[in-house]
């Protein structure tokens, strides 16, 4: 079997961000800043590190700020250039990918993660691809690269996983575990948001995927699952019956920024990385 290189990534950013209301009434959740960069840019930079060359954003209404963030801002850049602010210029547009690398697809209704991924089917074609959920933020930008490498060595679908408290299984897709070691686990099945009493394990899917295009055949059926939405996990549970899946355990520093506490933790973690002494001193003041 010929294994193709992963060069495309899908970023589902069409959700309503209701946990962050009223801030997200007019601003996309994915544009909330984590230490000066919006969530979506952290995910984008992770994809670039992994060798991704084409970036597909599944957006919705009131999400134009994301489009604008990945475009030039001529007035701002001229002002910075006139004042010779080179560092700020680099931070504004120096990281943007080449023209033609970005696509923005409107998800007309927020019908779930599975539906969002399905919306990108014509842009993916017959290639393997990555999916990144921007509200899962990793301090280590190299994790997706490791996932891509695992796919290209094995041909498996690869999913990021993490151990979560048993009482939190109803917040995640949970895997049916096979053989496990310190870094990976064989995945034998999946179930979306099970009650703790029904969960097959406490190993959760945490926002990064490398998938084969076969998944679109199952998503095409459009079956609604938990929450009345078209869940990606439900189609993965069908795909695992005919293709191999490997779960890679996420690095230690993963932050679930879909919740306020995780968002706060991420901001502190990135700030500590930048200026540990100053941030530690500030935190001690709050603890005192």
Task: Please tell me about this protein's structure.
- This protein is an alpha/beta fold and 288 residues long.
- Helix content is 34%, strand content 24%.
- The protein is built from 11 helices and 13 strands.
- The strands form 3 sheets. The protein has a 9-stranded mixed sheet with strand order 5-4-1-6-11-8-12-10-9.
- A hairpin with a 3-residue loop joins strand 9 (173-180) and strand 10.
- Helix 10 packs across helix 11.
- The N and C termini lie far apart (60 Å).
Keyword list:
288 residues; two-stranded antiparallel sheet; alpha/beta
Low-confidence stretches: none
- The dominant shape is globular
Write the element-wise H/E pattern from the N-terminal end onward: EEEHEHHHEHHEEHEEEEHHEEHH
How many E-type strands? 13
Structural class: alpha/beta
Span between termini = 60 Å
Strand order of the largest sheet: 5-4-1-6-11-8-12-10-9
Q: Report the β-strand fraction as a percent range.
A: 15-25%
Over the alpha carbons, how many angstroms does the gyration radius reach? 19 Å
Helix content bin: 25-40%
Query: Treating each run of at least 4 consecutive H or I residues as one helix, how many helices?
Result: 11
Q: Average pLDDT, to the nearest integer?
A: 89
Largest sheet: 9 strands, mixed
In short:
This protein has 288 residues and is of the alpha/beta class. It has helices at 39-49, 64-69, 74-82, 86-94, 113-118, 121-124, 143-154, 215-219, 232-239, 260-274, 276-287; strands at residues 8-12, 33-34, 37-38, 54-59, 102-106, 129-132, 136-138, 157-163, 173-180, 184-192, 203-211, 245-249, 254-256. It has a nine-stranded mixed beta sheet. Strands 2-3 form a two-stranded antiparallel ribbon. A two-stranded antiparallel ribbon has the order 7-13.
């Amino acid at each position: 079997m010929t294994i193709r290189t992963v060069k495309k990534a899908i970023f589902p950013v069409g959700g309503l961000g209701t946990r962050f209301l009223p801030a997200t009434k007019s601003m996309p959740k994915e544009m909330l800043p984590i230490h000066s960069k919006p969530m979506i840019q952290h995910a984008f930079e992770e994809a670039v590190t992994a060798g991704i060359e084409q970036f597909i954003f599944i957006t919705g209404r009131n999400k134009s700020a994301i489009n604008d963030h990945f475009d030039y801002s001529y007035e701002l850049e001229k002002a910075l250039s006139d004042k010779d602010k080179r560092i700020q210029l680099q931070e504004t547009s120096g990281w943007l990918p080449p023209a033609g690398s970005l696509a923005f697809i409107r998800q007309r209704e927020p019908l779930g993660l599975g539906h969002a991924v399905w919306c990108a089917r014509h842009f993916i074609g017959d290639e393997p691809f990555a999916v990144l959920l921007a509200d899962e933020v990793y301090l280590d930008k190299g994790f997706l690269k490791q996932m891509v490498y695992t796919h290209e060595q094995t041909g498996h679908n690869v999913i990021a996983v993490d151990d979560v408290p048993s009482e939190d299984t109803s917040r995640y897709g949970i895997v049916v575990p096979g053989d496990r070691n310190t870094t990976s686990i064989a995945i034998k099945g999946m179930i979306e948001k099970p009650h703790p009493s029904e969960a097959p394990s406490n190993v959760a899917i945490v926002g990064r995927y490398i998938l084969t295009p076969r998944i679109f055949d199952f998503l095409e059926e459009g079956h609604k699952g938990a929450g009345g939405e078209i869940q990606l996990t439900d189609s993965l549970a069908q795909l695992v019956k005919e293709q191999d899946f490997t779960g890679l355990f996420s690095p230690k520093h993963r932050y679930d920024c879909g919740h306020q506490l995780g968002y706060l933790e991420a901001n502190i973690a990135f700030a500590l990385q930048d200026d540990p002494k100053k941030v530690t001193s500030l935190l001690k003041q709050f603890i005192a």
